[in-house]
């Protein structure tokens, strides 16, 4: 892991880290056995031991930064269960479960539902509409940014609003390489003055205008940042975890006073996943 920091510009406020609560699933059964996104090639070799080592470094990084990490037991026959972000959306004790578009992943939802109910989450609804949870839902602390176009149904956005009781902003994804919202956008700071980083070309023209209006000071990533899943990052408001290949994004964040922590999980990228894909945040 590498850490990159820059002195803050005098005009910018100091960044404040907030402890987070994460749920992860070790990639003990990780493999690329099918193809449900452009990143997946079942004919390419996968090093399962390396994938586990990289995932372990990601988990350790969160813990070193002071975050709470809980772990759900991986299940054989579910190689993508490592991508815990797709399993549920949890905000203020309310939970909207997941419903996967691909039948290969459908069984994952029930395992995460059982984990959450076993930890006392009783206000939990399993969805009627297809939604792939934090893959397509990003909580800003005030409203839910919600993607559609490849996985999550547009109708799932209104279902999320009803179940979670938070306002939802719909965004249309247009590039199949960025099939989930969390491959093209992540929240840097939550709250009334929420901040995001995103890759504009992943969104429709109308959605780009929405993002420009809502986040005029956003960190805008380029094609190289997006191509290494650099937008699949995780931030606590100060510390940002990114893949090391996201060089331009790293510089832009450091210039704004964020501290960037590089964690290599390139083996998991063979299935189209980055740091955020592996990380479900349980929002208080």
Automatic annotation (TrEMBL):
Which NCBIfam families does this entry report, sorted A to Z? DiMArgaseDdahMtb
Database matches in PANTHER family: DIMETHYLARGININASE, DIMETHYLARGININE DIMETHYLAMINOHYDROLASE
Question: Does the record's keyword annotation contain Hydrolase?
Answer: yes
Extract the GO molecular function terms from the UniProt entry.
dimethylargininase activity
This protein's species is Saccharopolyspora griseoalba
Provide this UniProt record's keywords sorted from A to Z. Answer: Hydrolase
What is its EC class?
hydrolase
Which parts form a coiled-coil structure per UniProt? none
* Family membership: Belongs to the DDAH family.
Which protein are we looking at?
Dimethylargininase
Upper classification of the source organism reads: Bacteria, Bacillati, Actinomycetota, Actinomycetes, Pseudonocardiales
What gene is this protein a product of? ddaH
Question: EC number(s) on record?
Answer: 3.5.3.18
